[in-house]
Amino acid sequence: MVMVMVMVSHMDGTIDDRATAHSSPHQPTSTNARSITGQFLYPAYATYKSLGRRPTDHAELERWLMFWSVVGAWTAAEGIVGWFLEW
């Protein structure tokens, strides 16, 4: 949630100061931060740890590679659908 100060000028020369609260899709919130952590930061860390472990646990490595394949496919599909909807 972002607080924005709005100054409104009236015809008689008076000015109203109003604080308006609104959510901006470009400003991260605590929910977005948790979502980003859960969706990208932890999986990236777990993948890094899985790749660095010797001997390699192939089942764990396959699980994380499948996760990143699904994330990549979803992101690509989302971009294509978004492009068609904007067009």
Overall description:
With 87 residues, this protein is of the alpha+beta class. The chain is built from two helices and two strands, in the order ββαα. The protein has one domain (2-6, 16-86). The chain has helices at 30-52, 58-86; strands at residues 2-9, 15-22. A two-stranded antiparallel ribbon has the order 1-2. The longest helix has 29 residues, at 58-86. The two termini are 30 Å apart.
Q: Which secondary-structure class do the elements indicate?
A: alpha+beta
Q: List the secondary-structure elements in sequence, H or E.
A: EEHH
* Tally of distinct domains: 1
Helix amount, in percent?
55-70%
**Rg, please?**
23 Å
Principal-axis shape equals: flat
Short description:
By secondary structure, this protein is α+β, with helices and mostly antiparallel strands. Helix content is 60%, strand content 18%.
Characteristics:
87 residues, alpha+beta, flat
Topology:
Blueprint: E1 2-9, E2 15-22, H1 30-52, H2 58-86
Antiparallel strand pairs: 1-2
